[in-house]
Amino acid sequence: MPSKKILVIALLLFWAKSYAQNFQNLLVEQGLSNSTTFAIAQDHKGLMWFSTKEGIDRYDGSGYKHYNLYPADELTRYGLRRNKFHIDHKQRIWVNNFSDVFVYQHDLDRFDFVYNVAKNNTIRDLFVKDDQQNILLATDQGLIKYNYQTKKASTFANINQPIIGFYRYNNEFLLIALKNDILFFNLKAEKISATQLSANLRKEISKLSISSICVDASKNIFVGSTGQISTFKITDQSLKTNTALNNSISKVEVTKILPDQQQFIYFGTEGKGVYKIDANLNIVKAYLTDQNNLASLPENEAIDVFIDKENRVWMAGHEISYLNTKQLKFNYYTHQLNNPNSLVHNSIRSVVEDHSGKLWVGTNFGISILKSDRKNWDYLNTHNQQRSMSSNKVTALAKGNGQDVIAGTYQSGIYEIGTG
After folding, report:
1. DSSP 211-241
2. What's the rounded mean pLDDT across residues 396-406?
3. What percent of the chain has pLDDT over 90?
4. Concatenated DSSP letters for 302-369?
5. What is this structure's pTM?
6. Is pLDDT of 12 > 80?
7. Which of 77, 156, 232, 407 has the fewest CB atoms within 10 Å distance of its CB?
């Protein structure tokens, strides 16, 4: 029998432009060691890593592997509330707890202890320098450098106040966030640059209670503080902020702020949800818990926010969930009266893509075939004199041998149709 072509992408039609962004939750019942999660990372293989109350979980999309940092009887004493992940240029995974640093050994598939600070001190963040030998630790007692090769630690006399966290500004500078200040640390010279910010800008920053910082691709610096998001460039004389945005997060701490891959900024809060904003601090989307919507943000507290390589936004808290931010775009195809270049009938029973990329759609009035340009249609039914079928009710379609398509019909047998 001859071949004909008509296609269907039109499937679940009207999902189209109104596609909803739903949160997907990872559950203990699926293998997660504990639903309370404190930090998230993704390695070079695309595997997801979670720090939970029970230790570290690795997730490959279908299952989990659990890693203990401590013996079971020490978990309660240490806790994991301060965990932060860092992946260095060698793709090594580093993680810190309150006072300890660990590194994942790929060849041994385990986390090994590296270093611990004094017990009256707390690690808040870590950064592995490009030389692969020195780790910088943000602690409650200032900046510590630990040499991974020599096993020696040193401190910086001029950076001895509590450090909130790090964020890399460029190849030369690392941003160091203090409670009321932001320092530019020269990674090569290992000293603070005193000329980066104007006096007035520093004065405004000193009035903040900083909890998180990040830098976007345009070198805008975003500062999360209690009840406020601010932004500036290093040449600015003052902070920029947005009253409407600040009113939405009043009196709560911004737990994490970071840019995505599409020039937007996401940040989490300690009780007022997760927000997507633009570079001008306008709210693009607020993600809040809705008790009537099981696909909403599971809780309004986000301890950590992470954006993976596929631009999925992950939230860690008493539950862990992720949001697929990619907008699915559907083309809608339907039968149009007196238009032969349209779907032959709206009652669709089967769809298959042939070896050349054409979509075959089995309907109650024959087969429609959408060409690879996704614009032009062909058809195959009893009305087509060149390539006819004895039945218009096509119940099934499948790829056959070579370039053929197999079509099953209602009470008229099976057809093997060449696609050439």
Report:
1. EEEEE-TT--EEEEETTEEEEE-TT-SS-EE
2. 83
3. 50
4. -SEEEE-TT-EEEEESSSEEEEE-PPP--------TT-SSS-S-S-EEEEEE-TTSPEEEEETTEEEE
5. 0.73
6. no
7. 77
